[in-house]
C-alpha cells in the first residue's frame, strides 16, 4: 500500500507542477516538483541503508545521488521525474518480486493435539503434551498416532505417506515401532509411548522445516547484480564530468540519465509478465526471485510417489490359477472388496467397474486389518488379501517370484479355501513423466535425481523407465534435506514433491515445487512454485516461461543501460542538461518496458503445439486405448493355458482372442494409421516421425494373421500338438508387442493432450 501511495503522490505532484508551469505559476510548480523529490529521497535512502546492512550494494544508490544532486542544483523537474520512475519501479517490484513467506501453518495444524490414554481401566482424552514414555494409548481408526511408540495390542495398518511418501499402508504387528504423525488406516490398536510429543518424529519434522527455512538465503535481484559494475562506472563518469568542467550540474545530469530505471522497471516488468504467463499454465510462482532462480536451474530433484508416479496403487495384472478366468477372479475379489475402505481394495473395485463387471452383493463380510477381507459371494467363501498359510503351490511360488521381479504388491484371492488367483498392483508411472523430463533437459536441466523414502528396488525400476541420472532411496526427511543441500552447493537446484515429508526439502532447495493439486498443504506452503493442476508437464511449461522471461529481462536491462551509457557520455560533455536528460531517460524507460512486456506473449518453448483437430483425435484414440488395454492380458492368459488344457477346451479361448483382435483391436490400429499418424506427422513436421509406430502396426497385423492361419489349421478339433509351440510364441509375441506399443503411444502421443484446458499459448496465438 505504501508503494502505491508513493506512486500516486509523485504522479500527482508532477502533474500539478506541470499544470502550474503551463499557467505561468513557476514558483508553485517548482515547489510541487521539489516536494516529490524530497518524498522520494527519504525512502530511497532507507532502501540503500537496508541493503548495506545485509551486505549488498543496491542500484538505489544511483537514484539517491541523482535525487540529492537534483535538489542541490535546484533541478526540481528532473528530481520529480526520477521520483516517478522510482515509485513506478517499486510498485512493479512489490507486485512481481515479493517473496512469499514460507508458511508452515499446515505442519502446525496437522500436528497431533490430543491422545487417548488408558487410565484406571478407562480411556481418557489428554493433551499430547501430557503423554509420557510408558503410557498405554488407544489409536482409533482414522486418527493420527500422537507420539512415537510400539504396538502393544492388535495390528497397526498405518498410512505413512506423510512421513515417508510411501503410498501403500504399512502393517505393524506387536512390538513394531510406529512414528507420530502417521494415520491409522485400519482398525483401532493399542500402543505404548516411547517418547514425549516434543521429541517425536513429527515434532522433529516441524523443527527441521523451520531451521531449513531460516537458513535459506533470499535470491539476489537481477538489478542488484548489475549494480556491482554499473554503480562504480556511473560515479566515475559523473566525477570526471564535474572535475573536468567545474560545473556540478554536469555531474547531476550524468546521474539523472544514469538513474537505473531500465533495471528498476524493465526487469520487474518482465518478471511480472512472466508470473502472469506461468499462472495461465496453472503454475503459481511465489515471487520474481523464484522465477529468476527457476530460469537458471541446472539440477532437478524429484520425489517419486505422487510426483513421478500417480501416487496410488493400480492393478497391473490379474493372474488366474489354473482352471480359472481373470474376470471371474476379479469379480469375486471386487465383490468382497467393495465393502472395504482399504486403498488396495479401492483399486481392485475401480478396475472391475472399468471392465463393466457386475459386482454381486457379498454376505457375512468380515475385515481383518493387515490380513484381508472375507465374505460369501455367489455361495462361495471368498477371501481377499494375504495368502493363507505357509504352504504354497508351485504356481503361487512362481507368482511371488514374478511380483518380486516387477516390484509389485500382491493381493491373493481364495475361494472355499483354495487360491484361485492373484492380483498384482503397482504405483504406476505418470504418462507425462518421461516427456516432461525430456522437455526439462531441453530447457537446460543437466542432472535429474530421484529422492524418495520408498524401497530401492521400486525406485530403481521407475528410474530405469524414465532415464534418471541418480537414485537416492529409503531417505528420511532429514536425509532428503541433506541431499538437497548437497545438490544446491553444486548448482541451482529445483526440488519437486507433494507430501508433508517433502516440506523441509522443498525449503532447502533453491526452488521448491509442490504438486499442489493433490499434495499436502504443508508442501504447497513451503514451496516457491505450486502446480495447481495434477500434471508434471506444467513444470516444464513454467521453466520455459522462466527462461524466456529472464532472457527478456536481461536483454531489456542491457539495452537500457547501453542507451543510458550513451546518454551519460553526452551529458558529461554538457550537451544534455538534467531536465531534458530526465525526459530522455523516460523515453529509454518506455522502450525497455515495451520490450520487457514481450514476456506476456506466447512462446513455443519446449512444448509441442497441438491443434484442436489433432487434440480431438488424441482424446478419441486415448479413450479407445483405455478400453482395449484391459483385454490385452487375455492374450497371455490363453498362451499360458495351451500347455495345461486340452485342445478342445482352449479352442474357444483362441477363437475369442482372435475375434477380439480382428473385430476390436485391428480396426483401432488401422484407424490410427490412417487418421492419427498423418496428423502427428504434420504436427511434428517430419513424415518419418511415425515410421517406428507404423512398423509396430505391421508386426501386429502379421501376428494376428498368423494366429488366424493356426485356427484354420486347427479346425474344430483344436490345435495339433505340433502347433502349440508356435501358437504360444505367437500369443506371447502379440502380448509383448501390444503392451510395448500401447505404452509408447501413451507416452509419445496421448500425453500431449492437456485436457481439460487448452494449451494457453495455443489459445493466445
From TrEMBL:
Protein topology in the membrane: Multi-pass membrane protein
GO molecular function annotations of the record: ATP binding; ATP hydrolysis activity; ATPase-coupled monoatomic cation transmembrane transporter activity; cadmium ion transmembrane transporter activity; metal ion binding
Record bears the keyword ATP-binding: yes
Keywords: ATP-binding, Cell membrane, Membrane, Metal-binding, Nucleotide-binding, Translocase, Transmembrane, Transmembrane helix
Annotated Gene Ontology cellular component terms: plasma membrane
Residue ranges occupied by any Hemerythrin-like domain in the UniProt entry: 620-751
Annotated Gene3D superfamilies: Calcium-transporting ATPase, cytoplasmic domain N, Calcium-transporting ATPase, cytoplasmic transduction domain A, HAD superfamily/HAD-like, nmb1532 protein domain like
P-type ATPase A domain ranges (all copies): 111-210
Keyword Zinc tagged: no
Pfam families xrefs: E1-E2_ATPase, Hemerythrin, Hydrolase
Intracellular or extracellular location(s): Cell membrane
InterPro entries: ATPase_P-typ_cyto_dom_N, ATPase_P-typ_P_site, ATPase_P-typ_TM_dom_sf, ATPase_P-typ_transduc_dom_A_sf, ATPase_P-type_domA, Cation_Transport_ATPase_IB, HAD-like_sf, HAD_sf
Membrane-traversing stretches: 6-24, 31-49, 61-92, 226-245, 251-275, 557-576
NCBIfam families, A to Z: ATPase-IB_hvy, ATPase_P-type
Protein family membership: Belongs to the cation transport ATPase (P-type) (TC 3.A.3) family. Type IB subfamily.
Protein's name in the database: ATPase P
Taxonomic classification: Bacteria, Bacillati, Actinomycetota, Actinomycetes, Streptosporangiales
Amino acid at each position: 500500500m505504501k508503494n502505491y501511495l508513493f506512486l500516486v503522490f509523485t504522479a500527482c505532484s508532477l502533474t500539478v507542477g506541470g499544470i502550474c508551469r503551463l499557467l505561468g505559476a513557476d514558483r508553485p510548480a517548482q515547489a510541487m516538483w521539489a516536494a516529490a523529490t524530497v518524498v522520494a529521497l527519504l525512502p530511497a535512502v532507507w532502501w540503500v541503508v537496508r541493503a548495506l546492512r545485509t551486505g549488498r550494494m543496491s542500484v538505489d544508490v544511483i537514484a539517491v545521488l541523482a535525487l540529492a544532486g537534483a535538489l542541490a542544483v535546484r533541478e526540481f523537474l528532473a528530481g520529480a521525474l526520477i521520483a516517478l520512475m522510482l515509485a513506478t519501479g517499486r510498485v512493479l517490484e512489490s507486485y512481481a518480486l515479493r517473496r512469499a513467506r514460507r508458511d508452515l501453518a499446515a505442519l502446525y495444524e496437522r500436528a497431533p493435539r490430543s491422545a487417548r490414554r488408558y487410565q484406571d481401566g478407562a480411556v481418557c482424552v489428554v493433551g499430547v503434551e501430557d503423554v509420557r514414555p510408558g503410557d498405554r494409548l488407544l489409536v482409533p481408526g482414522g486418527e493420527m498416532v500422537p507420539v512415537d511408540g510400539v504396538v502393544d495390542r492388535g495390528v497397526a495398518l498405518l498410512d505413512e505417506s506423510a512421513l515417508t511418501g510411501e503410498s501403500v499402508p504399512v502393517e505393524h504387528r506387536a512390538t513394531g515401532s510406529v512414528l507420530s504423525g502417521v494415520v491409522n488406516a485400519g482398525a483401532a490398536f493399542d500402543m505404548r509411548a516411547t517418547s514425549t510429543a516434543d521429541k517425536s518424529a513429527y515434532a522433529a519434522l516441524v523443527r527441521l522445516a523451520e531451521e531449513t527455512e531460516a537458513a535459506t538465503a533470499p535470491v539476489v535481484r537481477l538489478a542488484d547484480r548489475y549494480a556491482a559494475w554499473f554503480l562504480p562506472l556511473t560515479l566515475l563518469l559523473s566525477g570526471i564530468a564535474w572535475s573536468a568542467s567545474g560545473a556540478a550540474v554536469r555531474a547531476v545530469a550524468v546521474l539523472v540519465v544514469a538513474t537505473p530505471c531500465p533495471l528498476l522497471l524493465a526487469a520487474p516488468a518482465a518478471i511480472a509478465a512472466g508470473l502472469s504467463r506461468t499462472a495461465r499454465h496453472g503454475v503459481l510462482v511465489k515471487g520474481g526471485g523464484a522465477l529468476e532462480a527457476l530460469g537458471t536451474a541446472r539440477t532437478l530433484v524429484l520425489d517419486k510417489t505422487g510426483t513421478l508416479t500417480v501416487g496410488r496403487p493400480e492393478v497391473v495384472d490379474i493372474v488366474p490359477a489354473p482352471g480359472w478366468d481373470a474376470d471371474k477372479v476379479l469379480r469375486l475379489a471386487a465383490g468382497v472388496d467393495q465393502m472395504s475402505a482399504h486403498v488396495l481394495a479401492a483399486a481392485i473395485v475401480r478396475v472391475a467397474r472399468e471392465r463393466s463387471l457386475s459386482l454381486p452383493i457379498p454376505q457375512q463380510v468380515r475385515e481383518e486389518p493387515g490380513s484381508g477381507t472375507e465374505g460369501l459371494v455367489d455361495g462361495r467363501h471368498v477371501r481377499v488379501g494375504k495368502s493363507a498359510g505357509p504352504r504354497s503351490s508351485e504356481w503361487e511360488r512362481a507368482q511371488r517370484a514374478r511380483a518380486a521381479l516387477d516390484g509389485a504388491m500382491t493381493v491373493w484371492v481364495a475361494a472355499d479355501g483354495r487360491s484361485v488367483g492373484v492380483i498384482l498392483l503397482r504405483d504406476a508411472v505418470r504418462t507425462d513423466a518421461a516427456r516432461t523430463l525430456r522437455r526439462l533437459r531441453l530447457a537446460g536441466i543437466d542432472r535429474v535425481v530421484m529422492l524418495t523414502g520408498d524401497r530401492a528396488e521400486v525406485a530403481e525400476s521407475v528410474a530405469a523407465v524414465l532415464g534418471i541420472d541418480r537414485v537416492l532411496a529409503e531417505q528420511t526427511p532429514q536425509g532428503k534435506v541433506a541431499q538437497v543441500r548437497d545438490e544446491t552447493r553444486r548448482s541451482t537446484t529445483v526440488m519437486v514433491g507433494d507430501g508433508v515429508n517433502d516440506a523441509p526439502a522443498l525449503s532447502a532447495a533453491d526452488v521448491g515445487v509442490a504438486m499442489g493439486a493433490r499434495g499436502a498443504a504443508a508442501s504447497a506452503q513451503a514451496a516457491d512454485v505450486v502446480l495447481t493442476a495434477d500434471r508434471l508437464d506444467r513444470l516444464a511449461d513454467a521453466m520455459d516461461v522462466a527462461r524466456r522471461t529472464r532472457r527478456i529481462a536481461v536483454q531489456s536491462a542491457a539495452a537500457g543501460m547501453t542507451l543510458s551509457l550513451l546518454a551519460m557520455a553526452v551529458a558529461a560533455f554538457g550537451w544534455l542538461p538534467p531536465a531534458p536528460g530526465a525526459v530522455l531517460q523516460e523515453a529509454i524507460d518506455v522502450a525497455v518496458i515495451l520490450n520487457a512486456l514481450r514476456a506476456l506473449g506466447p512462446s513455443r518453448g519446449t512444448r509441442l503445439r497441438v491443434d484442436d483437430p489433432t487434440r480431438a483425435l488424441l482424446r478419441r484414440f486415448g479413450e479407445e486405448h483405455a478400453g482395449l488395454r484391459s483385454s490385452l492380458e487375455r492374450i497371455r492368459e490363453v498362451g499360458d493355458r495351451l500347455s495345461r488344457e486340452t485342445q478342445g477346451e482352449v479352442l474357444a479361448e483362441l477363437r475369442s482372442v482372435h475375434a477380439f483382435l480382428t473385430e476390436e483391436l485391428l480396426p483401432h490400429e488401422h484407424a490410427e494409421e490412417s487418421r492419427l499418424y498423418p496428423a502427428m506427422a504434420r504436427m511434428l513436421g517430419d513424415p518419418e516421425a511415425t515410421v517406428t509406430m507404423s512398423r509396430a502396426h505391421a508386426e501386429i497385423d502379421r501376428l494376428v494373421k498368423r494366429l488366424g492361419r493356426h485356427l484354420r489349421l486347427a479346425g474344430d478339433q483344436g490345435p495339433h500338438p505340433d502347433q502349440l509351440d508356435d501358437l504360444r510364441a505367437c500369443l506371447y509375441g502379440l502380448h509383448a508387442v501390444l503392451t510395448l506399443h500401447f505404452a509408447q503411444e501413451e507416452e509419445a502421443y496421448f500425453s500431449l493432450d492437456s485436457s481439460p484446458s487448452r494449451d494457453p499459448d495455443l489459445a493466445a496465438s
